[in-house]
């Protein structure tokens, strides 16, 4: 079994498995070493900030006894009738657990623990807390459930208070409650509590769940001799992750991992390893594979800032809450980022981008933005070969900023508040749906827009996908039309405005899956503001005007573009019946077949090669003089 010492607000996370004991070199704390089953953890006073833990206990022992569990030397015991159950210290009704502790007079010192409280106590003075006792009180008496020096408490009504002496009941600070630290008033735990005294500057600081609730003037009047926790209620309470520290905090940690197979609050320090709350623009957060089932992590109502988030679990994490996840780089090294290495994960809380950022998702993995993504004038680069989904229809916020799709797939039925530059693959919907770009859309020559067609009812989002662009759409690259296997296309079926914008420029160089067989095709046509699709006879170039057959005008258009074809840039309206961007012999042959079939009322016979050649020559003879006359 491992024993971990983790510094509050610190990057220190030491795992010690030593076969021998070393005494703490400061005579004031020479007895404060501790033992965990077969693992011994020893702190040696080297004068470094990392060694500020002098007492610690995570109660991970099997004998269910609290007394004599700390020191192999025999001098330190818990003074309590607490027992150890499920690796937590369980307190009786109105009881305490204290260890001997004589603090320095020239350094800060603190006590902390993770608490689990009952709500069945009838009065506000029956509290769960941590704190110190002094010589005025002597040895804490079991059954009192209080401390004689400064303490930090939470009462059954959720009030967070600091008391100077629980016997005389003067309050040092009050007015805060669990709502101020983004917890429900009825939250039972885990709740992280931290109380620090500064004997030099005469200050007292209290934090709950990593959020500072009090910073007040306080003078120590009696010699402190004990540190611990207490339960003043009428029900049992539990304590875990207990620690007493001496000295200033170590430097803030920058890397955190969600360390439990449980859902919980982002702001609960004990949910992270090392213990603390990631909330800075140099913080790196990892949601690893400790979760055996999908878990939800809530940011509550407060914003949290990180430089990077990594998802390394095949089981889903959902990051929820009313507060925003702020993605911001400290400017040191790489950009802010979100990385998905395993699984499908959801950002259900709003996300705000405060600096340029990268989202990288590996192949077969998915990241879903299920709430507002505020680009805030910045660019988010989509990399990797996985899928990034935008599912939120929240239209609040500004539209400055851009999504740069360098690789992978962008999909979803929500709104991107900003422009999109597609250099890879954009696929509206999750199945069929409407993806809104509240800005401009630019598709590069190497990129693809995938549109699924599932029915001929003409309803965007139900029968087919739509890319709805509030600004301009500049098109190039490939349009990949995907006909669902359950859909049987019929001539006349219409899918209007698969792309709609305020202004369209450019056309798709290639359209996939145009040929439906049996002389039918997917007719892709363009207007100044949209791209439309209809089921039509291949060669019916003017289907956008409502025509239903391949007539002389259609064939003439095809022949003109065949003879003047430059090999690219041609569309259905020019006679490109197979979507490859030109009007070649295959296109012209298809148009003529459908032209002669139409004249013979649907006969399926194909003209003899000689007859076909004569017809083409005749059409050329008809067209070429007309073209020369325009020169």
Compact overview of the structure:
This protein is mainly β. Helices cover 7% and strands 39% of the residues.
Strand-helix topology:
Blueprint: E1 4-6, E2 13-15, E3 34-36, E4 39-41, E5 53-57, E6 79-80, E7 83-85, E8 88-91, E9 95-100, E10 109-116, E11 128-134, E12 151-154, E13 159-163, E14 171-177, E15 191-198, E16 203-208, E17 211-217, E18 224-231, E19 237-246, E20 255-258, E21 264-265, E22 272-273, E23 284-287, E24 295-298, E25 304-306, E26 308-312, E27 317-320, E28 325-327, E29 336-342, E30 344-347, E31 351-353, E32 357-361, E33 366-369, E34 373-374, E35 379-384, E36 387-390, E37 402-405, E38 409-412, E39 415-416, E40 419-422, E41 425-428, E42 434-437, E43 441-443, E44 448-453, E45 466-469, E46 472-474, E47 478-483, E48 494-500, E49 503-505, E50 510-512, E51 515-517, E52 520-526, E53 530-537, H1 552-563, H2 585-599, H3 609-628
Parallel strand pairs: 20-23, 21-24, 23-26, 24-27, 25-28, 26-29, 27-30, 28-31, 29-32, 30-33, 31-34, 32-35, 33-36, 35-37, 36-38, 37-40, 38-41, 39-42, 40-43, 41-44, 42-45, 43-46, 44-47, 45-48, 46-49, 47-50
Antiparallel strand pairs: 1-2, 3-4, 5-19, 6-9, 7-8, 8-19, 9-18, 10-15, 10-19, 11-12, 11-18, 12-13, 13-14, 15-16, 16-17, 20-22, 48-53, 51-52, 52-53
Task: Identify the notable features of this structure and list them briefly.
Jelly Rolls; 12-stranded mixed sheet; 3 helices; 53 strands
